[in-house]
Structure to design on (80 residues):
């Protein structure tokens, strides 16, 4: 968000969602740095990666996601 776009007062829903997405991206870049690097170059993660079975990919916002089914929710495309 640009400095001139800032508004004083409580955060709105959009700002909260953007903040949440940025925190998720930052955390994943720390813990899955090697995987993030490969995915950002349109490469597959290494076979020794803990994420390899999840078939990870980067979404349009740069969040690592899985195209595999989530075993708890049985719904595809959850954040890793």
């Amino acid at each position: 968000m640009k400095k001139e776009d800032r508004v004083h007062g409580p955060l709105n829903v959009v700002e909260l969602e953007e903040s949440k997405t940025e925190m998720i991206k930052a955390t994943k870049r720390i813990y899955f740095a090697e995987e993030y690097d490969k995915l950002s170059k349109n490469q597959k993660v290494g076979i020794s990666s803990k994420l390899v079975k999840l078939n990870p990919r980067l979404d349009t916002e740069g969040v690592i996601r899985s195209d595999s089914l989530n075993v708890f929710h049985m719904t595809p495309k959850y954040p890793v």
